[in-house]
Automatic annotation (TrEMBL), chains A, B:
Keywords: Lyase, Thiamine pyrophosphate. InterPro entries: THDP-binding, Transketo_C/PFOR_II, Xul5P/Fru6P_PKetolase, Xul5P/Fru6P_PKetolase_C, Xul5P/Fru6P_PKetolase_CS, Xul5P/Fru6P_PKetolase_N, Xul5P/Fru6P_PKetolase_ThDP_BS. The keyword Lyase applies. PANTHER family: PHOSPHOKETOLASE-RELATED (PTHR31273:SF1). Its cofactor is thiamine diphosphate. Residues 1-338 form the Xylulose 5-phosphate/Fructose 6-phosphate phosphoketolase N-terminal domain. Residues 543-747 form the Xylulose 5-phosphate/Fructose 6-phosphate phosphoketolase C-terminal domain. Belongs to the XFP family. This is XFP N-terminal domain-containing protein.
Length: 753, 753
């Protein structure tokens, strides 16, 4: 596949014109991946197993594609790669070109739930896939490059979160060939004693397969042993006598890099060295010696003995291939496994309008009920403890699924708390891509740890959507709380709302960002997200009690609109305003409401319209995002020409880029998180980031003065007053080390004004 | 510190008013941290050691601040925390309030080079700090929460990159207290056999200290043993007989969480349980029982026996404190260690204008010379192999510092290649914060893996700058290459320019983003970055040969300006244009140049000005970033009113947010990376992301038609032509699986036009 564009069955000697103009691909890892694939086939057939194959080194795609073609899975989903001469010609000649399948595993690869582009996540994705699939075994190859990554290094602990009674098993295969591109690898340089020690410490039983002369025997017997161990552990747990700290099996496979490829070239070793990493004979088209070496290499596999005249493989090979329903490339979990969750009515968890209530507390109860109604198809993964995010009500009918604590006696459980965002994300990906539903609550500032991992997932999802054969999957659902705006004593390091920006850069059809202003809006938002498919949903909210502005009905219609006028705190319900004040986010919205109250008292002549945006994408310039308001609707909400001041939870830059292209942007001002504030009080955080009620009120007066003559006259006086408020309040906070006692009282509004 | 606002020496019984109104802090981890601090003091004094103390659990700040006050380091840098009654009162009463030091370790903490907010990086930072400091030992505490993170899990391998002949040593102390906030921890539930296996596998000798009744004896003897082992390994290496795979020492310390605190409250265990994580007596102000418990707890330390009347500690305690130059809080490496590197003349590495040359190749030679001139103070850390990024010339006089390969005989070396962005970043941070200079080249798409880690570093740097006592440190220097624009066969997963956006959101005085258009501009940019201090420098460039537009002199003045007109490809040197075409980035700039050539042929009546932006911040709205052009200069460059089309390397959203606020934005159009393109040809990547020459030319005609009557007449015809080019070229690429042969020929310009 790397070399040929014709003569793919080697019916004649290879000529220069049989070779592609541009040789692209990674040979080094392929022999091992094919070896494993073949053995898995044999094992599945022999023992009637349900397996998936997750491959860490994603650039080993040729190995996968070849195996998939051979078993007919490629032909099933792509008729042009049928199991005959033409199909084989098409596969080989177009590989890694603009006309064919890419040289990386991706969503176009049948059977794949993992891309293996950004290395480090194969194991955690595999563990996520086997959760709540008691009969599934995922064989997962980890290359020795990937093994160096942090996410992989901690993923080995994932066995400690697998309850063998309810979940399946991962069979990790650490595939060592000793080299990355040119440097040796850490694991390749570890001797067997070091490796056995390390993985025994992680909790595994280790078998090392390294005798290349007897590799089939060694690998097969190790696989049989491993499956036996897995079944032993599962049987014990399922018969009510679980083994404490079961020692799950793993296999370490040492094979030479580029094994069975050219031994040497121009006096340099190729097989077993880094020279075989990509294209071992880079000048095969022009150089006769290299082309001769290619001829010898490819002929050594004796294609004439393996293929029939029609281009199909011989029956002996076919006899090792599992039946359709068991083939690695046709597993239904992978492409048609999604079942919509059974969701409770979110309204029954709503709280009274006018109360102060924690949005996290409200959804905790809702999530509890979601678990009750979906015993084996919804999970929650969190790097923090639910306790810390005020979500612990979710644990009312379920437990934390941690198996290594002899005192906890964890029996299953919908919740995994592990202090690794990478593990949580990997688990959620594997779980979601095999048809189930996951949630990922996190401290806001640390969700960015999986920024690129989320982007990788979104790329996989994009290509999945572009295939004809992959069905829907659940959206992945992030809940950000413990935000910068109420960071209490956590300080500067715990302030980073940048994950919003990560989602904004995704393809519009998949990206969803919500900042519900209160508990009821958060409930309906979460409900909406959990039943949605194929999105990346990000919900941002507070864990602290905050005012509930809207009844369930109002919450629903507000969230459906994405943004609306908060009439109760607007002047005369917001008609004919001089200025529009917009809050996006919980605390910053409260500051807008408080600013409106302040203005009503100090500057009643200023006509204020207060708007809340809960669906961030409504503000984006018309024509890009499906939720973006048309200019007409935008103008209805924000007026055509009045100044608009945004008080925004995230970085102002995000809002700037969304609004870009809307007409008359010179009337817009934006304040947002500005990287200010160490350990201080909640209200001081508002002050130092210039999103306090005083800042909002000041912006309102400055904007309103352009349209309201009476405000203009008093403008200078009023803004000085607000400046003084800012200075005095900061002084007060520092002197008293606390906010004023009435800071979070909900202001009352006289709606007749 | 968590509780008291008065009566800090317990001269009388604690009253309600002695207690702070808001109790904030983390008690659980503190006793262990203080224990270690005291023992390190004793050890330093006894053996005259050079040590630093890096603390993973950053919220253990009270332990550090107390110890620093006690040794006088706090008073040295903050006179208000003098070593007497007043100083102690100030420290305790203002702790974790808006008036005092925060409850998290940060740059305000003397002796600190690590914040410990986002967990996972303490170890790698420690290893970075000891590199090229042969006499330094960094004692690094890793909590059992942090130990669960991926970055920590792979950091244990860092010993494999430490050459004991030239570098110092890290003494890791895994501090297990068994709990996070409420859940057990992985490492807390591992038994001693599992722990010893695991860390033996990583390559350590392990000692476990867990007998709390003899903790001083156990910990001291283990520390003495560890320092002895370190010295043994170092002595062997420094006498020319290095031990292969030396087994570095580490200590596992098991102590009860919240040890010595209240044993129980209201019938619940506190000491040794998660209840001691934060504030063990949360209602001490209001609840008499809790206040009584507090009284007993604090009295149990017998302050009356430890403090003199003046509020200083007694001489017996003082006798264990090292001399000033050895104190953990006064180490010069931490706050005045920076020495500017000795840099070669970058001009001598320049290439000829008009050639095609790889920017990475050019800087590889320059970096080689930087290493030659700075044997022990400049290092390069990379998750990729230099080979792969065409930087391998940097290895001409130095090697890869990997110690675990018996065949490589690595003796030192300025380069560390390890497939973990987290390790690279941690190493660079530790190395930089102790006064040296680091570079971090990376595939563009995977640098985002350390997005939040970089933000954490920037936060540390911001607060360092705000102290009066910390000196300059080198900037940290990222080199992004292997970008999406030339991703060859790596496919969709290898495309992610989002790290630019991460830097854009930093505080303006620290953020620097450069996209030099050719090899010579890259050279002068790198030179500039390496001599700069306190910035986060991001440089983005291509590893492929690309046209060299500018001579060394031109490159220098272009980079000094940040952006300028490329006269050679502009109509009549760019005067009186109908449209301004701007390239930011290497390949997208070449497309702008090619578009200008195309337009000159097909639409000579359109007057085109071509601009290159190399310093991204010049476009930002006036008044924010120090590099932002004033509106007048902006208009001089981009004209006052003509349409501007940006062809941008990153996400368009970034440029939108930068430009927001500039007048007349309705004349601006922006194309950038749009998340399109799997494995395909380089030019197809331009086409599918709509940044090809045809897209630029089409945008130019559409813009220019507004100002040029003749262009307007032909506008429709021309844009259809370009549309056809786009369609036809894509067809050609897919059919031929390659770009047209002349795609990358530099177009010639007749400057008289």
């Amino acid at each position: 596949m790397i070399f040929l564009q014709d003569n793919v069955l080697l019916k004649r000697d290879i000529k220069a014109e049989d070779i592609k103009p541009r040789l692209l691909g990674h040979w080094g890892t392929c022999p091992g991946l094919i070896l494993v694939y073949s053995h898995l086939n044999y094992l599945i057939k022999q023992q009637n197993l349900d397996m998936l194959y997750v491959v860490g080194p994603g650039h080993g795609a040729p190995a996968l594609l070849a195996s998939l073609w051979l078993e007919g899975s490629l032909g099933k989903f792509y008729p042009e790669y049928s199991k005959d001469k033409d199909g084989l010609h098409n596969l080989i000649s177009t590989f890694s070109t603009s006309a064919g399948l890419p040289s990386h595993i991706n969503a176009e690869t049948p059977g794949a739930i993992h891309e293996g582009g950004e290395l480090g996540y194969a194991l955690s994705v595999s563990f996520g896939a086997v959760m709540d699939r008691p009969n599934l075994i995922v064989a997962c190859v980890v290359g020795d490059g990937e093994a160096e990554t942090g996410p992989t290094a901690t993923s080995w602990h994932a066995i400690k979160y697998i309850d063998p009674a309810e979940s399946g098993a991962v069979l990790p295969i650490l595939h060592l060939n000793g080299f990355k591109i040119s440097e040796r690898t850490i694991f390749g340089c570890m001797d067997n004693k070091e490796l056995v020690c390390l993985f025994t410490g992680y909790g595994y039983q280790v078998r090392i397969v390294e005798d290349v002369d007897n590799i089939d025997c060694g690998l097969h017997s190790s696989f049989v042993w491993a499956v036996g161990e897995i079944h032993k552990i599962q049987k014990a747990a399922r018969s009510g006598k679980p083994i404490f700290k079961p020692r799950w099996p793993m296999v370490i496979l040492r094979t030479p890099k580029g094994w069975t490829g050219p031994k040497e070239l121009h006096g340099q070793f190729i097989e077993g060295s880094f020279h075989s990493h990509q294209v071992p004979l880079p000048n095969a088209k022009e150089d006769d010696e290299e082309r001769q070496a290619l001829q010898e290499w490819l002929s050594s596999y004796k294609p004439e003995e393996l293929f029939t005249d029609a281009g199909d493989v011989i029956d002996e090979i076919k006899s090792t291939i599992p039946s359709d329903d068991k083939k690695l490339g046709m597993r239904p979990e992978v492409y048609k496994g999604y079942v919509a969750p059974d969701l409770p009515d979110w309204r029954q968890f709503c709280v009274d309008k006018g109360d102060q209530f924690s949005a996290m507390k409200a959804i905790g109860k809702y999530i509890d009920q979601v678990f009750v109604q979906n015993h084996h198809s919804v999970r929650l993964f969190s790097p923090d403890e639910l306790e810390s995010n005020k979500l612990s009500d979710a644990l009312q009918h379920t437990g934390r699924n941690f198996q290594w604590d002899e005192f906890s006696n964890a029996k299953g459980g919908r919740v995994i708390e592990v202090l690794s965002e990478h593990l949580c994300q990997g688990f959620m990906q594997g779980y979601t891509l095999t048809g189930r539903v996951g949630m990922f609550p996190s401290y806001e500032s640390f969700l960015g740890i999986v920024h690129t991992m989320m982007v990788q997932y979104a790329k996989f999802a994009k290509l999945a959507k572009e295939t004809t054969w992959r069905g829907d999957v659940s959206s992945i659902n992030y809940i950000e709380t413990s935000t910068w705006a109420r960071q209490e004593h956590n300080g500067f390091s715990h302030q980073n709302p940048s994950f919003i920006g990560a989602v904004l850069n995704l393809k519009p059809y998949a990206a969803r960002v919500y900042l519900p202003p209160d508990a009821n809006t958060f409930l309906t938002t979460l409900h909406h997200c959990l039943k949605s498919t194929n999105y990346i949903n990000l919900m941002v909210g507070s864990k602290q009690p905050t005012p509930v502005y809207l009844s369930p009905e109002e919450a629903e219609s507000h969230c459906r609109a994405g943004a609306s006028i908060f009439k109760f705190c607007s002047t005369e319900n917001g008609i004919r305003p001089d200025v529009v004040l917009v809050g996006i986010g919980v605390e910053v919205m409260f500051e807008v409401v408080a600013a409106a109250a302040l203005l009503r008292k100090r500057c009643p002549e200023l006509r204020v319209r207060v708007v809340n945006v809960t669906d961030l994408f409504v503000v984006e310039n018309e024509g890009t995002h499906p939720h973006a308001l048309k200019d007409e609707a935008f103008n209805n909400l924000f007026t055509e020409d009045r100044p608009i001041h945004f008080n925004y939870h995230g970085y102002a830059s995000e809002l700037k880029s969304l609004l870009f292209g809307r007409p008359r942007l010179d009337r817009v001002s934006i304040n947002g998180y500005a990287e200010e504030g160490s350990t201080t009080t909640p209200f001081d955080m508002m002050l130092v980031n210039e999103v306090s009620r005083y800042h909002v009120a000041k912006a309102a007066v400055m904007g309103g003065a352009k349209w309201n003559e009476r405000v203009k006259i008093r403008g200078q006086e009023l803004t000085s007053e607000f400046d003084k408020d800012i200075t005095e309040t900061r002084k007060y906070i520092i002197a008293n080390r606390k906010d004023r006692d009435d800071t979070y009282d909900m202001p009352s509004f006289d709606s007749s004004m």
